[in-house]
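Design job #97: recover the sequence.
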């Protein structure tokens, strides 16, 4: 999926990335409440019709409630991004760019949570497979050429895919929903940051009685960060190119918010990046993420796991990445309606049920926030330790093993108390007055 990374990190890492994405798909299929067949959406709106990169019809997976529940989840699939036209052309031949290769059936994970931190097994769940390569954000009416590949064309219709999926949901009962959770993982987590407000606006326009709406981005907070070698081929440059290539805009046909556009004149691509746009998200959100995200360490910092402890400079860069994550995440913490669970486990697709902070696992803390038991700063559980909880999480399934880091330098001993200053000398008694002269 990321052919360019072969030149940065090597084929094994590219294969690991692909394997990771397949594992996420498999987990969704296994954890979801039942599989359902792919449903293709009609292409009857001309140049505004939903489409995958190869022009094939966009499709989705809808698992309706068996108990007529009015709880809903909309879940965005992840799978990275295509970074230029050739990358998108190659992606269009995979299940992340063509509905011809979408699985015949798939499940959908309910993210509606009970008060104890368990998710409901029965909700109305809409799973949105990833077919556009830009987190459901771009739109070009006409096909886009691929440089160097005569006759090849691409379709950039991500925001149309999303709008058509929401319309499908409204026609299949979301117009009667009382609770809506919008979620997604990885690039789908970025989609969750970007698009929850748009989905909620569409839903409430048809369903004013919709009571509870929340946004739950999972592993979707990707830093605006340089790579280890300070090369030009970095994540921020990728996002900027995608922004222009796929024509991300801020109007009705755009996947980005107008308020964000006004905040970054000349740098509008920032609105496609997690750290720069959370302050414009109006829907309450709860973010799950690792500050040592496995994907980000490999593909943003561009250090393979074997390099993390190869020398003091690389180790310092990994540790600094965690600090930089917490600094940029403050954009989320500024809103008292938001919450989050930030682990030090090295993971992407983190085992939040097994990770414990403040005496509760990630899902329990999410439930406490969801039901208003914690608010403001108390709604954020932040692991301040070094990678894998200073090594205590290294054997936990789901946390990528890391060789032991050098111990932290001991804290300097407190200075010994200074000896008391000597008391100032007592003033000398006055000299006796000279005797008065004898009278003559």
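Job complete. Output follows.
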């Amino acid at each position: 999926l990321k052919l360019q990374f072969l030149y940065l990190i090597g084929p094994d890492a590219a294969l690991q990335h692909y394997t990771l994405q397949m594992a996420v798909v498999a987990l969704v299929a296994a954890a979801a409440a039942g599989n359902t067949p792919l449903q293709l959406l009609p292409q009857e709106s001309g140049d505004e019709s939903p489409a995958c990169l190869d022009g094939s019809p966009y499709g989705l997976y809808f698992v309706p409630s068996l108990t007529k529940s009015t709880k809903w989840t909309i879940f965005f699939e992840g799978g990275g991004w295509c970074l230029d036209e050739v990358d998108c052309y190659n992606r269009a031949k995979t299940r992340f760019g063509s509905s011809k290769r979408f699985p015949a059936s798939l499940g959908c994970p309910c993210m509606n949570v009970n008060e104890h931190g368990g998710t409901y097994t029965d909700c109305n769940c809409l799973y949105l497979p990833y077919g556009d390569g830009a987190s459901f954000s771009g739109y070009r009416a006409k096909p886009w050429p691929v440089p160097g590949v005569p006759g090849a064309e691409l379709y950039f219709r991500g925001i149309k895919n999303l709008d058509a999926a929401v319309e499908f949901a409204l026609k299949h009962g979301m117009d009667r929903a009382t609770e809506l959770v919008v979620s997604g993982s990885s690039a789908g987590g970025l989609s969750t940051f970007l698009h929850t407000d748009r989905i909620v606006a569409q839903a409430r326009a048809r369903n004013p009685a919709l009571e509870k709406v929340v946004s739950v981005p999972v592993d979707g907070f990707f830093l605006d960060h340089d790579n280890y070698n300070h090369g030009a081929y970095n994540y921020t440059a990728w996002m900027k190119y995608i922004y222009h290539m796929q024509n991300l805009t801020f109007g009705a046909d755009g996947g980005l918010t107008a308020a964000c556009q006004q905040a970054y004149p000349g740098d509008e691509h920032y609105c496609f990046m997690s750290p720069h746009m959370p302050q414009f998200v109006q829907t309450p959100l709860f973010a799950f993420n690792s500050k040592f995200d496995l994907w980000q360490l490999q593909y943003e910092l561009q250090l393979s796991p074997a390099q993390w402890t190869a020398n003091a400079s690389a180790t310092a860069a990994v540790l600094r990445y965690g600090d930089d994550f917490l600094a940029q995440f403050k954009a989320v913490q500024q809103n008292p309606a938001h919450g989050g669970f930030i682990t030090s486990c090295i993971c992407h697709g983190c085992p939040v049920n097994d990770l414990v902070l403040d005496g509760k696992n990630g899902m329990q803390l999410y439930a406490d926030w969801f039901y208003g038991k914690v608010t403001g700063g108390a709604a954020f559980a932040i692991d301040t330790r070094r990678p894998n909880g200073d090594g205590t999480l290294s054997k936990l399934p789901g946390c990528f093993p890391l060789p032991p880091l050098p111990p932290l330098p001991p804290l300097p001993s407190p200075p010994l108390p200074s000896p008391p200053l000597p008391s100032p000398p007592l003033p000398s008694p006055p000299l006796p007055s000279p005797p008065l002269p004898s009278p003559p």
